[in-house]
Amino acid sequence: MTSSKSHPEAADIQRVRRALLSVSDKTGLIDFARALHGAGVELISTGGTAKAIKDAALPVKDVADLTGFPEMMDGRVKTLHPKVHGGLLAVRDDAEHAAAMKEHGIAGIDLLCVNLYPFEATVAKGAAYDECVENIDIGGPAMIRAAAKNHAYVGVIVDGADYATVIEEITGKGGTSLALRKRLAQKAYARTAAYDAAISNWFADAIGETAPDYRAFGGSLKQTLRYGENPHQVASFYVTGENRPGVSNAEQLQGKELSYNNINDTDAAFELVGEFDPNLAPAIAIIKHANPCGVATGATLADAYRKALACDPVSAFGGIIAANRPLDGETAEEIARIFTEVIIAPEADEDARRIIGAKKNLRLLITHGLPNPATPGLFYKSVAGGLLVQSRDNGRVDTLDLKVVTKRAPTAQEMEDLKFAFRVCKHVKSNAIIYVKNGATVGIGAGQMSRVDSARIAARKAQDAAEAAGEKTPATIGSVVASDAFFPFADGLLSAAEAGATAVIQPGGSVRDDEVIAAADEKGLAMVMTGMRHFRH
C-alpha cells in the first residue's frame, strides 16, 4: 500500500558521504572512485567492482560487510538487503525514517553508481538462451529505481558520461544539487525502462509470442538533431543496440552531421542495397525522400552507379547513395560529379576516401557489413494514442514459388530482371511500379493513390531520362515491370505494355486476375505471380 504522507522539504545541496559503486562497464571507474575518495567520500562496492577499486590501492568496503551477508547464489543475491535499500530510500529529514535507520543500524547512501549487466550486448552477439537469462540484472535496476525515487537526497549514475559532472558539483558545491539529481533520476528511469524493454522483447521472441499483452521499446541517445523533418520539429536519434549493419552503428568518416531526413533516407538506401548479394554482383541504390530513383547492378561498382544514375538523373541530385561493396576510387570519382548528401558502404578504399575527402560536406559512412534482408525483426510506428507493430518485411523473391500464369513464359533474361524488379519494389512506397532492363531500373513510379498512375509516371520518367541522354526511345522498351501488389484492373498492366514492357511480376490475388492474365496474353506478355505482396506505406 502506498503512503500519502508528506515529507519535509530537502535542502538543494546534499552532501555525499557514502557512495555505492557496482558497475559492469568499468570504463572511467578508477578515476571516478579516486576523485570520490579525494573528496572524503566512503566507498562501498561489490564483486569485481570492489576488486578493481582495491587493486587501485583505494579503500573500499565490501557490500557483504555492510549487510552482514555474503554474496550468494552465483552473485544473484548481494544488494537485495534493507541496509542497502534502506540507505537509498530513507528520507533523511523525516523523524520516523531517521529513527528506523538508527534502530536497525542503517547508514545513508548518498550516491549510487550502477551500470547494468550487459544484457543487450549479450543478445546482440547471439548468445544462448541460458546466457541471456544470466545477464538479466535484478539488484541493479532495484537499486537504481530506489535511488531515483529518493532523488531529493540521493544521486544516481547509470552512465559513465556523468562522472565528471557529479565530481564537479561535489568539489565545487560541497554536494549534488537538486537540479542535477532530478536530471540523473530521469535518466535512470529511462535506462531501466529501455533495459526492461530489451528483455521483454527478447523474451517474446524466444518463446514465439508475436502479440504480447504489453510491448515496450527503448533506446539510447546517439544524436540530438538540429530539427526533424521540418525546421519547426524537435528530433533526436536513438539506437536500440540491434546488431544490424546500417546507419545506426555506422562509422562516419567525414562530412556534416547527419540530419533527420539523412538518417531516414540512408537507412532506406542501405536496406535496399542489402537485397543484392555482393558475391554475385556490385550494386548501387540511389535514394531520394526514402524512395529509390535508381538501382542497378553492373560489371563494376562504377558501372552499377552509372546505370542507376541513368534511371532518373534529375532526382538523383542531392540524393543518398548506398553500395553493397567497398567504395573504390573510380566509383567515388563518378559520384563526386554531382551533389550528393550521403554515401554509405561496407568499406571505402584509400582512393575513395581521398576523393570524397575533397567534398567537405559530403557524409561518408562505413558499416563493415551489409544488413541481411532475411533476418526477422520488428518494425513499429506511432499513431495517435498507440503503436503499430509488425514483423520486418523479410520476404525474398528468391525463396518464393514463382508461377507463370500466361501462355508465354519469361526468357531467362526476363526472369532475372523480374526478380531484380521485385526486390526493388519491396522498398518503394506504394503503389509501386518498377521497370527494369538488364539489371537496372529504368522507370520508377512510387507513392501514388492509383496503380495505373504509378505505371504512367514511371514511363514518363523513363521518357524524360531518354530525352536528357539524347536517346530516341525510352529504356522501358523491352523492359520488364514489377508491381508491389496485384493489378485490380487490367488498365495498369496495359499502361506497362504501352510503355514497352514485355514481362510482368506481381503478387496476384485479385478477383480480376483472370481478366489481367487475359490482357497479358493478348499483348504477348509473360506474367509471373509471386503470392507475396510488398506494400510499403
Description:
The protein is of the alpha/beta class. The chain is 37% helix and 18% strand. It contains 18 helices and 21 strands. The protein has helices spanning 29-38, 47-55, 63-67, 82-89, 95-104, 119-124, 129-134, 139-149, 163-173, 178-206, 260-273, 301-311, 329-335, 350-357, 412-425, 451-469, 490-498, 513-523, and strands at 18-23, 42-45, 61-62, 111-115, 155-157, 220-224, 236-239, 251-254, 283-288, 291-297, 319-323, 340-345, 363-366, 378-383, 386-391, 403-404, 433-436, 441-445, 480-483, 503-506, 526-529. A six-stranded mixed sheet has the order 8-13-12-11-9-10, sandwiched between helices. Helix 18 links the parallel strand 20 (503-506) and strand 21 (526-529). Helix 13 (329-335) runs parallel beside helix 14, helix 16 packs parallel to helix 17 (490-498) and helix 17 (490-498) runs parallel beside helix 18. The radius of gyration is 30 Å and the shape is elongated. The model has no long low-confidence stretch (mean pLDDT 92).
Total strand segments: 21
Q: Roughly how many Å apart are the termini? A: 47 Å
Strand order of the largest sheet: 8-13-12-11-9-10
- What's the story with the biggest beta sheet? 6 strands, mixed
Shape call: elongated
Uncertain residue segments: none
Q: Average pLDDT across residues?
A: 92
Counting helices, strands and paired strands, the structural category is alpha/beta
